Amino acid sequence: MNYWIQNLAPHGSPDEIGVIQLAWLGDSVWELHQRLRHIHIPLKSRDLHLSVVNEVKAQAQSKSLDEIEHLLNSFEINLIRRARNKTKRFPKSSDPAIYSRATGFEALVGWLFLKDPKRLSKIFEYLECKYCLLYTSDAADEGLGVDLGGRR
Length: 152
Hints:
This protein is mostly helical. Helix content is 69%, strand content 0%. The longest helix is centred in the C-terminal third of the chain and has 25 residues, at 117-141. The protein starts with a helix and ends in an 11-residue tail after the last helix.
């Protein structure tokens, strides 16, 4: 589901853009990615919306950052740190640590979208694989009969 990113060429100079602006861009890129992931699910508009909201909220973004941190290089880790430190205001309903981690994740997504779309595509693909395994495992735990295509 990363076809829309894979063939993009790097654009502009993200090094000249502030981390909050990168996070703003990254938030929209992440939401578009989630919408594209959910577009083929035959749900009502409201249910699609709620599914995407669950994937783009701060807690989910922070969890996604947890999943990929071991894949990141020192520059990317530093970019996330700078974005986390720049975050000063938090919604009352949000844990400040989770919200700042989500901002760091968004800044990384924004920077990679502009600077290295192929790497961003690979990170998204890695996250999709992690989520597919998680959802499949959850469904199996609940006895929903998920067929993994193995021998019987």
